Amino acid sequence: MIAGQEPTSALLAEIASTGTDPHRGGYSRHLFTDAELSLREWFAEAAARRGLTVEVDGNTNLWAWWGEPGASAVITGSHLDSVPGGGAFDGPLGVASALAAVDLLRADNFQPGKPFALAVFAEEEGGRFGRACLGSALTAGAVDPADALRRTDPDGVSVADAARRAGFDPAAFGPDPDRVARIGQFVELHVEQGRGLADLDTPVAVASSILAHGRWRFRFTGQGNHAGTTRLEDRRDPMLPAAATVLAARRTAAKHQARATVGRLQPVPGGTNVIASTVDMWLDARDDRETVVMNVVDDITAAAEAACREEGCQVVVTKESFLAEVAFDAALRDRLLETLDGAPVLPTGAGHDAGVLASSVPTAMVFVRNPTGISHAPEEHAETADIEAGSRALAAVLRELAR
Ligand code: GLV
Ligand code: MN
Ligand code: MN
Ligand code: MN
């Protein structure tokens, strides 16, 4: 092994104990928490060890340049944050592979002929503040910085306050067209989040597209009251229409052959012996057809309203984010396929920073087999041999693009 050269699995081992969540299992690595800040430091140190120049952009994304920053840059990377109780690979695999790819290219005496950088995007999962791909969407101008800064975490801490406490300047948040204009191509390596590669018995794939997807908040209101003294006929319990809406989401998704998930429900005040006054419920809906996603949300909204009428409650639905279907750049995908001869092409239902950037710059993704087919859960996995195959594939692709 040459100096600074570490296989991707060794890099992942360095952060294996950062941000573990003993309560949920897996990892909770949320924006501007101690765990996430320490992962940023880890990346900056690993990049510096490789002689890369690290900068933090106004939206707190990290960039590590191999040589001088410049136009038509080849960029690779992913994210280091996680969902609550997530796996070890969603995000960090792409970052560790990017670092390892630099080592592999150097070991091969490769010098990029173009500006070349690794990127780590902030709050990809929206795990703390609810807006997926926050860092890349801010940079691309796809989200209003004032709205973003006002978003709060479950404890009521705003993005602005959390950023300030972590030493970042909230006033710097916002579109960064010059930075985006410098990107020639962006390639993100990611653990596959479904069973596609496991079923094909193949270690590496190239992505074709991402489903249209979005998040909606359903706020049910009723009357908070005592669990023991309030007769059933006197109740206005918002948990009932919320429960009916969870079931409607499943039914509606099945009817439209789409995907709809309620993964988060927050009763207020949240006491066992208290009828809730409010229940916030978040719906995640996805399909390859945008119109189907909208129909699914409309049908679920109608079911929520009907259930509220029955229970004397109200519901207000707020769209929190939406990204139309992404078809990755066909020419770039074909270049990847030429390099990764025989790699299958797979669509995905998962969102990525590469999907957000796809509307501004040519982007592509490389997937690495996940034998469990499980993701956003501690059981997400990638075998060491596949991890290293993925990193070699990424290095080969970058060599071709950055010649
Ligand atoms: C992110 O991984 C998402 O698909 O929500
Ligand atoms: Mn994810
Ligand atoms: Mn991810
Ligand atoms: Mn009492």
TrEMBL record:
Keywords: Hydrolase
Superkingdom, natural source: Bacteria
Family according to the record: Belongs to the peptidase M20 family.
Species the sequence originates in: Fodinicola feengrottensis
Signal sequence, start to end: none
Stored Pfam families: Peptidase_M20
Keyword Hydrolase: yes
Protein name stated in the entry: Allantoate amidohydrolase
InterPro entries: Amidase_Cbmase, Bact_exopeptidase_dim_dom, Peptidase_M20
Coiled coil: none
